[in-house]
Design goal:
The chain is mainly α. It has a single domain, classed as MFS general substrate transporter like domains (Growth Hormone, Chain: A, Up-down Bundle), CATH 1.20.1250.20. α2 packs across α12. The longest helix has about 40 residues. The radius of gyration is 21 Å and the shape is globular.
Length: about 425
């Protein structure tokens, strides 16, 4: 199924248009809840599996690297299944990944936790490969960032809820837990860590049930129809399509991939590292375990502002440009401000990151048609690898210098985004 095969009914002629947006918003809620649990899993697994800080960031690596590995295979899968069946497959794969947490928690075996996260990420890749380009095309291109911002609100509401819910379950009375573990002899400490590891089992069983229930119910959801070839072998590239892969298109793909890499990397780093950063500056774990919600709350403010202002008061290209400047300024504040004030600045990073993802998609896909559009969507999804690599690089850098100065890794990230935003602003 190429994206060019999607036939979208105009909103004015379709009374179910709003329902379709809500249904797609449900998927973005799922994306957000499952993705931003990682912010709680990092300190949880660091304690339960007795990890060094950089090892804990393998959580984000295992989860987000699956997007790069599976983006193009996912687009090929959708060529066979179509959008709706592909979503059901993605949800089922996510459920399988959640089930892997049961033996991982039983054995308290970190590599198996990572495998479960990788499988969950594969399922999410299938969903995102279908849904992100679709919502981009669902209406006029000048308001694409506004529609994606609505999806971002759904995503970030879930992201705010996830750390609060999971933190209260798997890291209950966490400050007392740390003191308790420090006082226990080796054998009792091992038994206590085993009990801590088991607390994750019930939440992930519930997630499995929810995902499978949605996979079953989606057959009755009446999502938008997909026209064209949904099954069978994808058509071979025609001579015209081959010749369309010009140097300019290749550059467009490379710049779009890099922009997504930078945007997702900065978003994930700000959201998933803030808990450990809070601990570094003296916050207790009972507070730090919820800090991901702080970053996502500021990000949701940015999304709401985007929905309200784009394109009514500001173009999506200008919003992208100013957001990149804001990210650069906040990075300098994080690095230079003292102690707990720096943690607050990191939480505000979400405000700068809000309009990056929504504005990159329409700019990166501009002018692409047919299989190139499908390939472009897959290439952008591969850029989500930024969420896998940037936190890991940060962890290594923090070990070498310190947690605060390690955020200088974001300076070249926002400088590139500023360049890319300015390029799009000139072309608009």
């Amino acid at each position: 199924m190429s994206l060019s095969a999607i036939t979208i009914t105009k909103p004015a002629a379709d009374t179910r248009y709003g329902k379709k947006i809500l249904l797609i918003g449900l998927f973005f809620f799922i994306f957000g809840f499952v993705s931003w649990i990682n912010g709680t899993l990092i300190p949880y697994l660091r304690i339960a599996c007795e990890l060094e800080e950089w090892e804990a960031y393998l959580v984000t690596f295992a989860f987000y690297i699956s997007y790069t590995v599976m983006a193009i295979p996912s687009s090929r899968l959708l060529a066979y299944t179509g959008m709706v069946k592909g979503m059901r497959v993605g949800l089922a794969v996510m459920a399988a990944g959640c089930l892997l947490f049961i033996p991982a928690a039983t054995m308290r075996y970190y590599p198996l936790f990572l495998l479960g996260l990788f499988v969950v990420g594969i399922g999410l890749t299938v969903l995102q490969t279908a849904v992100n380009p679709y919502i981009t095309l669902l209406g006029p291109p000048e308001s694409a960032a506004r529609r994606i911002s609505i999806m971002g609100i759904c995503n970030k509401v879930a992201g705010i809820i996830a750390p609060l819910v999971m933190g209260s379950i798997i890291l209950k009375n966490s400050d007392g837990l740390i003191k308790e573990l420090a006082a226990l002899p080796t054998a009792e400490r091992t038994a206590r860590l085993d009990a801590l590891s088991h607390t994750v089992i019930v939440p992930y069983i519930l997630l499995t049930v929810i995902l499978l229930s949605i996979a079953w119910a989606i057959r009755f959801a009446h999502l938008p129809e997909i026209d064209g070839h949904q099954t069978g072998e994808p058509a071979a590239k025609t001579t015209t399509e081959k010749s369309s892969m010009t140097p300019a298109v290749q550059t467009q793909f490379l710049l779009g991939f890099t922009a997504i890499f930078c945007a997702v990397g900065s978003e994930v780093l700000a959201g998933d590292s803030i808990g450990n950063y809070g601990l570094y500056h003296g916050y207790g774990l009972d507070t730090a375990k919820h800090m991901t919600s702080w970053t996502l709350a500021s990000m949701m403010v940015g999304y709401i502002a985007g929905v309200w202002a784009i394109p009514r008061y500001i173009s999506q290209q200008k919003a992208f440009y100013y957001s990149s400047w804001l990210g650069l300024i906040i990075t300098l504040l994080v690095v230079l401000l003292p102690g707990k004030v720096s943690v607050g600045a990191l939480a505000l990073m979400g405000l700068a990151n809000a309009m990056l993802w929504p504005a990159i998609w329409p700019q990166a896909l501009k002018g692409l048609q047919g299989k190139l559009l499908n390939l472009g969507g897959a290439v952008l999804i591969m850029g989500i690898a930024g969420g896998a690599l940037l936190p890991l690089f940060y962890g290594w850098l923090a070990k070498g210098i310190n947690n605060q100065y390690a955020y200088t890794i974001l300076l070249p990230v926002y400088l590139f985004l500023l360049y890319y935003a300015g390029k799009g602003k000139k072309q608009s």
